[in-house]
């Protein structure tokens, strides 16, 4: 009977108030309300009445209107009322004792109707008592408080909604947290196993780091996909949303992504390893670390240089220690009167006495150039490729070659220059011609 009375009352109000009937025909978009539902029913049993973003009270269904539709109509009327003026008159209650229903009005404009069904739903004596309670709550909400109080109320409502959402989503949050913790443990284990396996098979620290990091990252990607699924997020839809912005992200992170991709290629191809001495463009030194973003080089004077992997990947790389041995050379000029074969024999004998000079390939002495005043010989021999040993052995080789040539009395003259004077004054020319030869 209560439902039938509610339906008849709704029909009477639709006839008596054209504006009410007109607003019922419109379906505004759903507002962010907190709704209570009955298991097995699609529509909510109760819906919130919202004022300034805060839920004030809840209403149930009436007649052909569901709770959501009824709350939307009331919310729209309150929003329209507040947008028309800074101050809103107090809401009054008009009670019809014969029919046991009450209306909440402002300046003879009906905001909502409270019927007997509402009092039964909320356990109140009659519709008038419930209408007075709701009118009092609406008047307090419509009374614009000072800014500080308004901000505090909004913060309180926001925190309350967040707590309600957190409580309702607590199982999903706990499940996602368990998945993340499990993923963290599995990722660390996989990284250790991959690093150990790489140490046994590869023997190169750069590749070991690459394999362990790729395994670690792959486990985390799988873990995040599962965690998002536990939270109820559609990973395919998320990828689609990311795809819409992939072009913008690609342009903004172009350099970062290119450095990471170049780092993966460098660690996979391995043009150099940690500890190698290389030259890249204007930089030369020892490789101390190869990361996914940059390569670190320690120069021979002790400075650290971080080179982006994209620049390393696109530059010419000279690996001085790719081979354990490296050839060096010394240029020496001997006199034209000297015996070349004697000079060669003396140089080769002297080099054979140096322990750090490689016996194979054997040192060799070549006639490089017949210069103006000397015969230039190029002495080639192989030494350790590391820079310190390379420089030291080149220095020792040059010293012992000079001492060997001095031992067999082969001169190493400096360049001789001949000066020819033309159109000299007669007085200077006669003095030069009459001067005895030097020596």
Automatic annotation (TrEMBL):
GO molecular function annotation:
mechanosensitive monoatomic ion channel activity
The UniProt transmembrane annotation reads: 170-190, 210-229, 235-253
Q: Record keywords: Transmembrane helix included?
A: yes
Residues of the signal sequence?
A: 1-21
InterPro entries per UniProt: LSM_dom_sf (IPR010920), MS_channel_C (IPR049278), MscS_archaea/bacteria_type (IPR045275), MscS_beta-dom_sf (IPR023408), MscS_channel_2nd (IPR006685), MscS_channel_C_sf (IPR011066), MscS_channel_CS (IPR006686), MscS_channel_TM-2 (IPR011014)
Residue stretches making up the Mechanosensitive ion channel MscS C-terminal domain: 330-412
Family, similarity comment: Belongs to the MscS (TC 1.A.23) family.
Q: What is this protein called?
A: Small-conductance mechanosensitive channel
């Amino acid at each position: 009977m209560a439902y039938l009375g509610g339906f008849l009352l709704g029909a009477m109000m639709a006839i008596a108030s054209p504006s009410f009937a007109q607003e019922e025909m419109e379906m505004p978009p759903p507002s962010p309300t907190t709704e209570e539902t009955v298991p097995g029913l699609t529509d909510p049993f109760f819906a919130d009445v919202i004022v300034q973003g805060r839920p004030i009270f809840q209403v149930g269904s009436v007649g052909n209107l569901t709770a959501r539709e009824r709350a939307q109509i009331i919310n729209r009327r309150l929003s329209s009322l507040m947008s028309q003026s800074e101050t809103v008159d107090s809401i009054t209650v008009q009670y019809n004792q014969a029919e046991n229903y009450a209306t909440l009005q402002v300046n003879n404009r009906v905001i909502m109707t409270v019927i007997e069904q509402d009092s039964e739903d909320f356990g109140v004596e009659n519709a008038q008592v419930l209408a007075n309670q709701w009118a009092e709550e609406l008047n307090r909400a419509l009374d614009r408080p000072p800014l500080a109080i308004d901000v505090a109320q909004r913060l309180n409502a926001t925190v309350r909604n967040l707590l309600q959402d957190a409580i309702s989503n607590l199982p999903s949050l706990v499940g996602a947290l368990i998945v993340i913790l499990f993923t963290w443990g599995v990722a660390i284990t996989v990284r250790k196993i991959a690093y150990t396996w790489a140490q046994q098979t590869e023997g190169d620290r750069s590749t070991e780091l690459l394999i362990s990091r790729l395994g670690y990252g792959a486990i985390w990607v799988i873990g995040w996909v599962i965690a998002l699924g536990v939270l109820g997020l559609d990973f395919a839809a998320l990828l689609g949303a990311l795809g819409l912005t992939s072009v913008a992200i690609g342009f903004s992170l172009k350099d970062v992504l290119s450095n990471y991709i170049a780092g993966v290629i460098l660690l996979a191809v391995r043009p150099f390893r940690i500890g190698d001495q290389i030259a890249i463009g204007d930089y030369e030194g020892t490789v101390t670390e190869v990361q996914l973003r940059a390569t670190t080089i320690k120069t021979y004077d002790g400075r650290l240089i971080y080179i982006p992997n994209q620049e390393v990947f696109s530059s010419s790389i000279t690996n001085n220690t790719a081979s354990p041995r490296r050839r060096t050379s010394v240029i020496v000029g001997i006199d034209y009167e000297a015996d070349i074969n004697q000079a060669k024999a003396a140089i080769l004998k002297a080099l054979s006495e140096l322990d750090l000079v490689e016996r194979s390939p054997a040192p060799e002495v070549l006639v490089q150039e017949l210069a103006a005043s000397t015969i230039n010989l190029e002495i080639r021999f192989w030494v350790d490729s590391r820079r310190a040993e390379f420089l030291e052995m080149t220095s020792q080789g040059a010293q012992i070659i000079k001492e060997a040539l001095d031992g067999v009395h082969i001169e190493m003259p400096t360049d001789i220059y001949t000066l020819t004077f033309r159109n000299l004054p007669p007085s200077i020319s006669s003095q030069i011609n009459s001067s005895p030869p030097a020596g």
